[in-house]
Amino acid sequence: MRKRNHIIPLHLNKKELAHLEAQVKTSGLPREEFLRTLIMGAELRARPCDHHADLLHKVAGLCNNANQLAKVANTYGEASQQSVEEMTNLARQVWEEVKNNW
Hints:
- The chain is an all-alpha fold.
- The chain folds into two domains: about 10-45, no CATH class; about 50-100.
- The protein is about 70% helix and about 0% strand.
- It has helices at about 15-25, 30-40, 50-75, 80-100.
- Helix 3 (about 50-75) packs antiparallel against helix 4 (about 80-100).
- This is Bacterial mobilisation domain-containing protein.
- It comes from Hydrogeniiclostridium mannosilyticum.
- InterPro entries: NikA-like.
């Protein structure tokens, strides 16, 4: 048995329907879920961009490398110049990605 048994007919003109469809597309939710979310008063945000997952992956890699570099530095009392340069290059790549796509 369905949990949602109440149906509410809604009449929209072309402009209202176009606006609704644009908002639904931006949210990434199905239309019914979008409307339910609005009714419940939740804050809706736009769906993350396609490059969002790639950016998160790069940031995670950057953090992982930073942790490895810190571990080596703590263990041996220093880090190699190559490790520091690699870390710096990764940080620059992530910064460029954020700057160009956000």
